[in-house]
Amino acid sequence: MTQTMMKTDFRREPVYIAVLALLLIAGFFLPSWLRFLLQTALAGGLVALGVAIQMRAGLVNFGQGLYYCLGGYAVGLLSAKLGITDVFVLLASAVVVALLAGALLGLLLARYREIFYAMLSLAVSMILYGVLVKAAALGSTDGFNVPPVTYLGWLPEREIRADVVYTLAAVLVVVSCLVVARYLRSGAGMLCEAVAENEIRLEYLGASPKRIVFFVIVTAAGISGLGGGLLAISTGHVDPLMTNWTTSGGFVFVALLAGRGSTIAPVIGFFLLELVQTYALDIAPNAWQMILGAVMLAAILLLPGGLWSLIDRRGKA
Amino acid sequence: MKKIATLACVSTLALTGAAMAQDSIKIGVPVFLSGAAAGPFGEPEKNAAELMFDALNAGEVPAPYNSMGIGGRMIDATFIDEASDAVVEYRNLVERTGVEAVIGYTSSGNCKSVAPVAEELETFTIFVDCGTPQVFEDVVTEPKFLFRTGPTATPDAVGAARYLRDSGYDLSRVAGINQNYAWGQDNWRDFTGALDALGTESKYVSNQMPQLGAGQYGAEVSALLTSSPNVVYNSFWGGDLEAFVLQAAPRGLFARSAVLMTCGEALFPAVGKNIPEGAIVSARGPFSVFAPENDLSTWFAAAYEERFGEYPTYPAWKMAQAVLGAKAAYAKAGEGATAADAAAAMTGLEFEAPSGIVKMANANGHQAIQGIGFGTVTQVDGKPTVENVKFYEAECVSPPADMRAEDWIASGFEGAVCE
Predict the structure, then answer these.
(1) Nearest C-alpha of chain B: how many angstroms from A142?
(2) Cβ contact (<8 Å) for A37 and B80?
(3) Are A281 and B80 a contacting pair at CB < 8 A?
(4) Which of A246, B21, B122, B198 has fewest C-beta within 10 Å?
């Protein structure tokens, strides 16, 4: 009971998000390789956040990479094939495309729960994967490159390009966390927990679980699309692996590892996991997966509530 | 006093550190160390790189590479797994590990994503094995720091079409079996394009595109058999290729049709005795059994076999020639050369390798062109080798410098020089 109350308590979110903002400002001064890692982790973190908010409604989405990929390819296609390079147009399109896909799929997926939801979302994402692999014009599995973007007509010099992209990504991630936190405090967001707890009672109270689930799917789709768009701009390359089940599985893992206590948890969790991975690769190029696996296993065994439970526990004490 | 002593000690240490750093050249080597490509590509490439680095550091490589190290400095290599986020790990290599040059990459997808980053970070980078011509055609059109010492995938398909025609195979009914991803799709497109350009008037009776890593080809082999092709074109690699040969041979596909496998040479160590005689293979260039006889090739094959107990397959040859390309570039740039000097020196360079002379002729002198050989498999004392070999020179199977591969094939090989 107390745990449920704690989970729905998002009154401290502005404080946490302010902390994230401060961390990201500090991140600006990191060495460039580490800051780049942080920047790509921010993009992935948004998708993990999308998975985490669906988990609040008891739904595990094993195909969240679908929206990540749609966002990335929206940016890629508009910039590389149509020559639109304005970053704001590109990212807005990434979000709109993902929202539309989310709304369309939401009509279908909102009717399913548990394993059926997980498998159906996985299936849809793998359909997109299959289509992209067949699309030779889009580079098939090799994907294609995304040209440098402009900011309202301004193309930054090569030296400061990385600074500008990082700043943009940091600002957008903070704003996204604020939007999601606001959503979680709203009626539709609060009731997600109730969908997971007792759907029938919720209907007796006059609320529509289907509508609540629909909203959470669409919200998660929107921020995941933004994450995909940010990744495309950061790495300058998109490929179908973005919607492969392995990628989606990674997001689910981060959402579990990080915990659902705050909107900033998946973002920070994704960065920490990337950090472990890159050092594992450096230290043991032949056995890095083993190190990564051991860390994941340890996190699950020692912190079943996710990394965020460390902070929650301290808050209670 | 104690403090001063410590300080002096620390500064001496720092100085020695700096001196040591100057004496070595840090090279990053991304190759596949996990996943499906680790066995057929990553292992031979890593082995060849280690062999070459050790031999160069000891000054054991035959002339003209008998001086120690690269640019007079000892090689200090950092291997990383290519089966990870390519762009992130490339940046980490350059900015965290601080490597001066990067030699590696097998996946075309990774090459495409890393290419612009190499130019952005102004890091001397040599791609070893990735095949897509797009790297210099679309992604980086004005390269300064980026090179590829291996030929693109274009000569595979073009050479195959020429070999089949020149050897008098019946090309009226042609079929293909290629993996359903960028590599397989491009191969089939180029091969059919090349046949059309040669005017063979072939009928394409079947094109099977199984998933990458499928492993089971029962249905595809049946489809190939029922479409009764005279020639089957196959661009499989790794475990897929081995599985295909082991499954298709007992069902008589090799007996009923001429099967051409562009990566077939790589089968020799693993399933060599199971390759039916008469199957057509290549090594994707003048490597391995198709390599010319010279001091470098004899030394390389023997040194590799002695150290790893196996004859080197073509990815190992490609890695060796990439390493020697870097050495040649530093040597040409002169003593005390920086990576930027070496990159400038490598542009348009012609250097010796176990595969003969490598010409950095295309993409403003950043892309190597090499010839390709094809031959039929024959078993001698239970060991496979090739006969009926035809070798096509680089200028015959590569597009000229100012033309895209696709347009060149469509134009009917405009400007190709064939003997």
Answers:
(1) 4
(2) no
(3) yes
(4) A246
Residue B97 shares a structural domain with residue B175: no
The pLDDT tens digits of the residues spanning B208-243 come to 999 888 889 999 999 999 999 999 999 998 889 999
pLDDT in tens, B34-63: 888 888 899 999 999 999 999 999 999 998
Residue A34: list chain B partners with CB under 8 A.
96
**CB-CB under 8 Å, B81 with A145:** no
Question: Taking every pair of C-alpha atoms in chain A, what is the biggest distance, in angstroms?
Answer: 60
Which of A34, A136, A142 minimises the CB distance to B112?
A142
Do residues B202 and B273 share a domain?
yes
Q: Are residues B221 and B328 in the same domain?
A: no
- A285 with B138: Cβ contact below 8 A: no
* Cα–Cα dist B261/B63, whole Å: 34
How far is residue B370's CA from residue B364's CA, in Å, rounded to a whole number?
16
d(CA B255, CA B241): 18
Residue type, B291: A
Q: Which domain holds residue B179?
A: 154-283+371-410
3-state secondary structure of B104: strand
Give me the residue from B92, B138, B185 closest to A136, CB to CB.
Answer: B185
Q: How far does A130 lie from chain B, in Å, by closest CA?
A: 10
Which residues in chain B have their CB less than 8 angstroms from residue A36's CB? 88, 91
Calpha distance A284→B289 (Å, rounded): 34
C-alpha separations of A181 from A12, A25, A46, A94, B216 in Å: 10, 20, 13, 21, 49
Contacts of A135 (CB under 8 A, 6+ apart): none
Q: Is A60 on the interface with B (CB under 8 A)?
A: no
For chain B, how many structural domains are there in total? 2
- Based on the domain organization, do B70 and B210 belong to the same domain? no
List CB contacts (< 8 A) between A235 and chain B. 87-88, 113
Q: Where does B129-285 show beta strands of DSSP type E?
A: 146-148, 173-177, 203-208, 231-234, 258-261, 280-282
The CATH number linked to B112 is 3.40.50.2300
Interface predicted TM-score of the whole assembly (ipTM), two decimals: 0.80
Whether residue B6 has pLDDT greater than 70: no
C-beta atoms of A145 and B212 within 8 A: no
Q: Do B79 and A285 touch (CB under 8 A)?
A: yes
Q: What is the pLDDT of residues A121-134, one digit of tens each?
A: 999 999 999 999 88
**Alpha-carbon distance B105 to nearest alpha carbon in chain A (angstroms):** 13
Query: Taking CA atoms, what residue in A is nearest to B42?
Result: A286
B66 and B147 assigned to the same domain:
yes
**CB neighbour burial string for A88-127, b if at least 16 within 10 angstroms, e if fewer:** ebbbebbbebbbebbeebbeebbeebeeebbebbbebbbe
- Contact A167/B at CB under 8 A: no
Q: Do B182 and A142 touch (CB under 8 A)?
A: yes
Q: How far apart are CA B58 and CA B70, in angstroms?
A: 11
**In this structure, are B75 and B31 located in the same domain?**
yes
Specify the DSSP class assigned to residue B95: I
Which residue do the tokens 């952005």 mark? B120
Q: Are residues B115 and B196 in the same domain?
A: no
Q: Is residue B17 part of a domain?
A: yes
Scan residues 196-215 of A and list those with Cβ closer than 8 Å to B.
none
Mean pLDDT of B337-351: 92
- Please name which of B144, B206, B194 lies closest in space to residue B166, comparing C-alpha atoms: B194
Q: Which helix (H) or strand (E) holds B345?
A: helix B339-346
**To the nearest whole angstrom, how far is the Cα of B167 from the nearest Cα of chain A?**
31
Count Cβ atoms below 10 Å from residue A311 Cβ, excluding itself: 16
Q: Do B91 and A158 touch (CB under 8 A)?
A: no
For residue B274, is it within any domain?
yes
